[in-house]
Amino acid sequence: MIIFLRRLTFLLFLLPAAACQAQDDKYVEGVHYELLPQVVRTANANKIEVNELFSYHCGHCYSFQSQVHAWRDALPDDVDFQRTHVVWNSGMEVYARAYYSALTLDVFEPLHTAIFEAIHLRKKAIRSEDDVGQLFLAEGVDAERFKRTFNSFGVTSMLNQGKARASAYRSKGTPEMVVNGKYRISMRMNGGGAGMLDVANFLIAKERQQKPTS
Questions:
Q1: Are strands 183-186 and 34-35 parallel, antiparallel or unpaired?
Q2: Residue 76 CB-density burial (10 A; 0-12 exposed, 13-18 middle, 19+ buried)
Q3: pLDDT tens digit string along 125-134?
Q4: Deepest in the core among 82, 100, 104, 168, taking most CB within 10 A?
């Protein structure tokens, strides 16, 4: 009887540890996310960054927007949401310039949706500066102001920084998400956008636990 009670006490002691291990193993490196070989610098070292890699030309990115916007709006204050428009070839630079121009001109919210819908809903060919300019003009942006911004040194710098960041992330497709410059998550590994966001939540919590307490 004494031996039985000792074994029971030992098993009860192990249960909390086993529960924690089960939580830790809910999502597994190499299965649900990939650990980057080198940590990529984030925009704000005081927060946990989530960076969405996307392209306006990507149909999956367009479908993902309603999910990711609702998720982003519910993020706690210690999480910093960022985006990077990937540039796989020279033809994609026009989309990246459109994205960074919208940020610079402070018209991101209407233009982000307008560009996606023009390409995927209305099936418009957006291939040039003039094509993009028509979308900005429709949102009330002065044509000359758009042109200066689209071709500005600042937008070119953001585009080049985005290229370098996507390369450092070892991005293989879109949409993808990178958590705190350490972990890359893809739809392919998680069966879609909802799965990708679940893994992002898991990794945010993981990073939060590892942050030093002040």
A1: antiparallel
A2: exposed
A3: 999 999 999 9
A4: 100
